[in-house]
Design brief:
Structural class: mainly alpha
Number of domains: 1
Protein name: YiaAB two helix domain-containing protein
Keywords: Membrane, Transmembrane, Transmembrane helix
Number of helices: 4
InterPro entries: YiaA-like, YiaAB
Radius of gyration: 19 Å
GO cellular component, one term: plasma membrane
Length: 142
Amino acid sequence: MQTQAQRPTGAFIGASWAALLSGVMAYLAGLWNADMPLNEKGYYFTILMYGLFAAVSLQKCVRDRLEGTPVTGIYYSLCWVSLALSLTLLGVGLWNAQLALSEKGFYAMSFALSLFAAVAVQKNVRDLSLLPAPQPEPEQGA
């Protein structure tokens, strides 16, 4: 089954990148300013990086399957498990953290925004890579 890729609009591309950058930067700024031990900051940073990788990998697997590109069942399953594990680890970490509820909500929402935006950016990059390069218009001349 072959799907026809459509060029994403410039507005969607820009919004996707803006959401990814704002989500990741907000999360990292929160960690930078947090009053927690360095090892706890490292835990939350690692969960963010793991979650971003898992979300992008899962989106790629789903898209590959839709386009008929073979994806092994084990890798597809590992992508789902990794995404679920990153969400679970964040949830457990925030549940047990000595943070105000507003801080816990901040980390959860910036994490969710980052994952969603990473999937959107990866989709845009893939869509743009599948499209043929635009051809220059022939000159109208005398």
